[in-house]
Amino acid sequence: MAVLRDANPTHVVLLGDILDFYTISRYDHDPRRARSLSEELAAGNDFLESVRMAAQNASIWYTEGNHEQRLDKFLVRHAPELIGIGGLALPNLLHLMQRGIIWCPWGSRNSIGSGANKIYFEHGDRYS
What we know:
Layout: H1 2-7, E1 11-14, H2 37-54, E2 59-63, H3 69-78, H4 90-93, H5 96-99, E3 101-104, E4 110-112, E5 119-121
């Protein structure tokens, strides 16, 4: 955060997997590593608030990673009736709009800048 404050960037890009959603992952769980879902969301919110405070004037982009996708996958498997309820959507749980953070859904290709200064970014499993 000190680097962000000192650099005073115009853009900050978070490239995903900020949250792990370990407790709702389909993989085996080590109980010594378990953190409740609410604790993980609270830690994610604290982190994002720290980023916003450190880069107050920056445009901040949050790219959804495969680990953030675990929330939707969990709902699809265990509670499909809840899909589409806005309050359960990750951008709402993380208060992105209130923080002025731009949400970039999984699989989207995004860019900042223009011309020779244009930079593309996404969270995916391929590169070119």
